[in-house]
Write a structure and sequence with these properties.
Layout lengths: L1 H5 L3 E2 L2 H10 L6 E2 L2 E4 L3 H13 L4 E4 L10 E2 L2 E2 L3 H9 L3 E4 L12 H19 L5 E3 L9 H13 L4 E7 L11 E3 L8 H8 L7 H19 L5
Parallel strand pairs: 1-2, 3-4, 4-7, 8-9, 9-10
Antiparallel strand pairs: 5-6
This protein binds zinc ion (ZN).
Length: 229
């Protein structure tokens, strides 16, 4: 975060970034910081660093795991609603990451609608502001065009404006605004790795990612109906 700040980057929310992309602004020194799931260490560790850098971030909540006292699930502590409200007051944004962190593609349509719509409603009730962004849990199935179209329509109908996914890369105005690409940043990234990622040195990685997915998807289809090949 300090490297980004020292290099002159500013952090904005998805709405501002997308508006900038649409009008062709120079966003080479603009980032959107997103955190999935709602882990409690955002409150205990990340907030202070972000404040020092003057950065906002968007946290995507799995709403069933956000409670009045910290939930501990699979060894990880989650934020409480009062911490979420405090973070919101400190300038952080919130979006939906479903109700139960379900694998959406495996669900019946009414369950899928519940996972997406109910998490939005709950956050809106708790914060008293509209929720306009969504983060897809697990690896995004970009090779499944029918599912993607269905989910895009659903998000649109439920009043979402933006979303992020596990597609690797930097967003452009050609990106689907409901499934924007991201660059994962990990503990073991050093500064030169971070720099390569944010300055575009890793954009080519999306192609091997997509190729692997398409090949896997075809392999799955072949397994299901070997006679249809
Ligand atoms: Zn997640």
């Amino acid at each position: 975060m300090r490297w980004l700040r020292n290099r002159g980057y500013r952090a904005v929310d998805l709405a501002e970034a997308w508006a900038g992309l649409e009008v062709g602004d120079d966003l080479s020194k603009t980032v959107v910081l997103t955190f999935d799931d709602g882990y409690r260490d955002f409150y205990t560790e990340a907030l202070e660093v972000l404040k020092q850098c003057g950065f906002t971030a968007t946290i995507f909540l799995t709403t069933d795991r956000i409670r009045n006292t910290p939930a501990r699930i699979e060894g990880v502590e989650y934020l409480t609603w009062s911490e979420v409200r405090e973070l919101h007051a400190a300038g952080m944004r919130f979006g939906s990451h479903t109700v139960t962190h379900a694998d959406l593609r495996s669900l019946a349509l009414d369950q899928l609608e519940y996972e997406v719509g109910h998490s939005k409603e709950i956050i809106e009730q708790k914060l008293g502001v509209p929720v306009d962004s969504f983060s897809y849990p697990f690896a995004f199935p970009e090779e499944d065009k029918d599912f993607m179209r269905y989910l895009e329509d659903l998000l649109n109908n439920l009043g979402f404006e933006y979303g992020v996914s596990t597609i690797l890369g930097r967003a452009s105005r050609k990106s689907n605004r409901f499934f924007l690409p991201r660059l994962p940043v990990n503990n073991w990234d050093d500064i030169s790795m971070l720099r390569a990622k944010v300055e575009g040195g890793y954009d080519w990685l999306h192609w091997p990612q997509l190729l692997k997915k398409v090949m896997f998807h075809h392999a799955t289809i072949m397994q299901q109906s070997p006679k249809a090949i």
